[in-house]
Structures
1.
Amino acid sequence: MSRNPDVPSIQAYRYAAGLSQDQAALRYNEVTEHQTSLGGTTINAWETWARARGAGSPPNFSSLLILAEAYGRGPLGVAAEDISPGDLVSEAYERLPPEDQLSLKKFSARRSSHSPGVVSATTQLDRQVEGWGHLVGSDFNLTVPTVDYGNPEICVFSLPNPRPGNLLDIDWWTFGFGIERLIRQIKNLGRRLEVDICFGVNEAGLVMATFLASAQFSRCAIGYLRCNKVRDSIVLDSTSFYPDAEEATTILICDFEVKHADVVGFIASEIRRRYPKALLYFAVFGAMTKGSDLEVASFDDLTGSQIMRAADFSAVFIAATMSPPGIEPPLELR
């Protein structure tokens, strides 16, 4: 997958096995001892489904089991690599039918109990269910502003606060889980997002921008926006950094949280002033809700919804929802 970061994982595993789509289908049929007659068009349909929402068709659980064994045989067909079927669909897991999601979870749980050293993508999902990610609440889908003909539905998780009225301290596991969730949303935008600059708002946003730039955007340039509050206004510190870019560029702004203050609008205006023809995207770790229910039914149930709409971003990505007074990043990054 690290050698082929621009394709879905199910396709990256096929590349690693050195197979064309037709050869992958033949290998699949060999695993079933030719009780199936799968063709290359089916392999193509599965990979198309993993690449973009609304296209192709998903593989079912039994097909993933067979495909994992087929690719585990390697380029020459004689290897015995142990591939998890959940890893084949790691970035598109939420789009599988509920029955297949449950089957993958159960399979991974049994697998990890027999192989404690193996940690797969689906095993991490099991860890969340079993309490490893104790800060992470339930998942739910939310419709957000997005590009024309893009996928407006993202999968968000809640951050329940066991101590109302106090900041919720985020640990590194939860922080990393949120970054992975943002990456998954970006991959499922509906088209490939090429970003020229990732801007981080303050130190926590800078950490987010660094991870996303490295993991998702081929180590694109990284900018830094240090915001200082002066009375009732916000100013950008002179230590802020603005990378050079072409006249028309694509920029992702990363912020740790969105509450009531219009920091987002101020920053968007400043970025557009420096990069007049830029397309702006926005990724936030935690968005505050207006009510006590964190599983909001609508984007407008977020306190910063109008702020984000007014900033006119091409698309918005949100990892989690939170309640007042907010969340505190690891190591108290500001």
2.
Amino acid sequence: MYPLQNSQDLQPLIDDIGKRPIVMLGEATHGTHEYYTWRTAISKRLIKDKQFRFIAVEGDWPDCYLINRYVKGYENDIQAVLRQFDRWPAWMWANWEIVALAEWLREYNASLPDAEKVGFYGLDVYSLWESMKIMMDYLKEEDPQAAQYVKQAITCFEPFNEDEQKYARQSLGRHCRDEVLALLRQIRFRVQHLDSDLEAGFNTEQNALIAVNAERYYRSMISFDNQSWNIRDLHMMETLNRLLGFYGKKGIVWAHNTHVGDARATNMHKEGMINIGQLARDQYGAENVYLAGFAGYKGKVIAGDEWGAPMQEMIVPPAMEGSIEEILHSEFGRNGLLLFEDNKYRDKIGHRAIGVVYNPERERRGNYVPSFMAHRYDALLYFDDTTAVHPLRQEPHNEKVPETYPFGI
């Protein structure tokens, strides 16, 4: 295992990535400082040294598109942009670590022509109502006829009062599938005639696609299988494909390990679940996709004790005996980079996964994913003692942005 102390220690990883055009960077939680800062360190190297063109994250498209506008110079206050993130769990992207990344991207883009600026986007499917509202606000000025199709879709959804659970429960009797499909067809037909900035048509079509896939996702919530999970990851992959097509270049993905690590190397596969790591390897070939997981032995994390609960800083206890985290702690006891090209971690082993809802006292019951590590990832970044991410709603330390790059990137 290679030591991880500063950004220079990433060279073995950068070399191992080689010329692969798709790099996916995982995380074992949605609230750990080190996962954000080291993903930033890797992303900066890929952007500067290998000309990667965008970062696509496990976040809502409309919210992340505001970050995209900021890093490309259209918005002027990144903190104001991030404070608009109001969907729980807002701390995932409204945090000081993202402030620092966005400011670096903006500075990097400043001297580049518009067509070469690096972008920042959301891959997720949740933003049904937000996407329709954005389309309506834009098209009522740019294309009033297309706006009528948005209005029809909005009218169909109005009885559900922006309540996804209510729509899921009542969709067996009445749903809005036809309306959103008609909307997507019209947008795709008309998008070529939208003559605003370079991304206006792309953004509008993406919001129409979200309306279609989100409607399907929320309708699937009443089922007792894993259909909704698969719909979500299929949408993420479709969005990634659109971004790769739009840029014609190379892209970076930030998402949880459960999305990034190949599902076929875990018990997810037996349950009929797929993810973007698996889908990307299938579509582009493993030789063109690099999957890097993240892991931590103990520390602190930001999470909620139930869905929608106030965020809190929680203790992450030492990892379960026999897990990959506990083994790496026992064998090395320090931060490190593990490359799976030729190593002994090929048997099935527990690998910790913490979501936005977390209870440290119960984690042994369901927070470990049985995994064939060398098949799930190409590499694993391991941290022996982690700290919590810094949510934006908290004051920055010493009235400034927290030290998000302690190793001098």
3.
Amino acid sequence: MGSNNGQRLGITEPISLGGPTEFDVIKTRELEKYLQDVNLYESQEEAVSREEVLGRLDQIVKTWVKKISRAKGLNEQLVLEANAKIFTFGSYRLGV
């Protein structure tokens, strides 16, 4: 395996580490109220289903990474250490 000079591929740095402003907090509350008013939040049953699908997808990706690692000729220890992580965002994180 070649060196990547400490890079973490697929992960970008945050735009800012600062917390939300007062304006951000107000707008977030307004958005949450709107989403509730128009009934866009998912039900508990939908949330559980979404988590199950994400869990299955996570296993598929991890199995794929190990398969590719073996195909590239990595030794078994490296194959066992090979991993992937799925990060959720957008509507998934909002639960809508």
